[in-house]
Amino acid sequence: MSNTKTVSFLYDDGAIDLEVPAESAVLTSRVDELKSTRSGREIVHEAMMNPIDSPLLSELAKGKPDCCIIISDHTRPVPSQDILPEMIAELRKGNPDIKIKFLVATGFHRPTNMEELRNKLGNDLYDEFKNDIIVHDAHNPECNTKVGVLPSGPDCIIDKVAAESSLLIAEGFIEAHFFAGFSGGRKSVLPGICDAVTVMGNHCGEFIASPYARTGILEGNPLHIDMVAAARMAKLAFICNVIIDEDKKTVAAYAGNFETAHLEGTEFLAKYCAVKPAPADIVITTNGGYPLDQNAYQCPKGMTAAEASINEGGVIIMLATCKDGHGGQSYYDSIHDAATADEFFQKCVNTPQKETLPDQWCAQVWCRILRKHTVLFVAAPEQKQLIEDLKAHYFPTLEEAYAEARRIKGENATVTCIPNGISVIVRD
User: Fold this and answer.
1) Is 177 a catalytic residue?
2) Residue 19 and residue 107 in one domain
3) Is 109 a catalytic residue?
4) Which of 58, 177, 276, 425 is least surrounded by Cβ atoms within 10 Å, i.e. has the fewest?
5) Is residue 177 located within the same domain as residue 201?
């Protein structure tokens, strides 16, 4: 009987195999079981007809001259062609004359361009609404207006289009998120349509350092608490959030109250993604392969899965090609320019909330992990210098990284394998 087993780790558009001790834990989600024989439109329609803690959207539309629908931007695989036609039909059922606008929730991302919007919406929706699409700009104060103050102190400043609408609703999708707990729901407002001042206040060093600002955690999560408050201040009246399978097809939908409908969706998803930690001396993880392993900026996501299931002072082996480079200049500079990972982490934690730097949150998570664990990084050969600049140890192959991990932790070291680091929610 063999005392080893083969585990496959997602990398680029394929996988890399490794022989590990037979007793090694393998943490995998059940997302491959998320399937549906029904069309996405059918699933969304049923959810819209049975809203959670909310009147029907057609009822909410009655007497409202206009409606602003917050839609996702180019960075999110939200199946808008399943959701928006159903929302629009319900709005017009309740009020045939209602004026509808789309507000693109770019958050802190670059603006979505018109070609990306056409691809997202499809030709029919794009052609009908192209003159009523507003791309949110977090960096232009003239486009945004204050609607309140977040529980933690910063001003809650949102897009004027949303603030001035008589009915504000949102589409979205739910997936695990490495510091907000889950995407979807309240995130359409914060960070989706908030001013940079509000986003950076919410993503401050103190909050990112919280033990509750972790994948799959909402209760006690300081970012989530502010996000919910922002959505209330914005008067977000209705959402339709979906859950998608590995092929990005809609398999479930939750419509209605932005808090309770979202919560039901997160609880459903967690049944497929949540795994118990199996702390080990060596943890091997990935960023899920292509497309999320193409730059270093995304990699803290897969790294947090390992962080949640490792012994103190353990070794993390991370697999991601990073063939597109760092993915964010300020992210790279923050880590590269610090003397040590701990130095930058401490700087973030001690930076006043109102002085949060753009994109410091991803760099902070990276450094939070590096300050406690040795990180051996398997990436494309041309990214050796990048990986070293980011204070990790570069290896050209998984076998070489694993041999080094064994050298560091000893031949009797325990091993945990996470073939897809972004598909699991590691929690007790």
Assistant:
1) yes
2) no
3) yes
4) 276
5) yes
